[in-house]
Amino acid sequence: MSTAGRGPLMAQPLKPPSAGRAAAYTGLFLLGAVVALAGALVQAAWLPGGLLLALAGATGLFLGGAYATGRRAGAVAPVAGWIIAALLLVASRPEGDFLYGAGISSYLFLLGGMTSAVICATLAPVGRPGAGPARLGK
């Protein structure tokens, strides 16, 4: 898709994503929340292998979402779901209990997941209109 004669890419009006791309981002968001829940359960169960497995799963989802959609938003959608779910799981309830324990493994999972999220969202492929490995909704 050529932008010749229409001005720079940043000066063009924004379009909402297609229905297929919006569905993909929604699915990646929900999958990010599921991975955060599964990681919270696994990281405490099999230390240190569970922690490494949980972080590898989260990193794989973040980077896989970016490559599947060909855009940085493909990494940001599961990151948003992961962070929201992780923060909701950390918050204590009125009964005083919460899912994460107060051990070093829980803190490493949260810090490692957020570090992985920033790295994957930063290094994700930059999308151009009409480019990318998966052309969802086109």
Model description:
α1 runs antiparallel to α2 and α2 packs parallel to α4. The chain is mainly alpha-helical and 138 residues long. It contains four helices and no strands.
List the helices and strands and how they pair.
Elements: H1 19-45, H2 49-69, H3 73-90, H4 104-123
Label the overall shape.
Answer: elongated
- How many strands, which pairing sense, and closed or not: the largest β-sheet? none
Can you count the helices?
A: 4
SSE sequence, one letter per element: HHHH
Q: What is the arithmetic mean of pLDDT?
A: 81
Question: What is the β-strand count?
Answer: 0
Round the Cα radius of gyration to an integer and report it.
18 Å
Task: Find the structural class using helix and strand composition.
Answer: mainly alpha
Residue share in helix: 55-70%
The proportion of residues in beta strands is under 5%
Instruction: Give the oligomer, counting copies of the same chain as homo and different chains as hetero.
Output: single chain
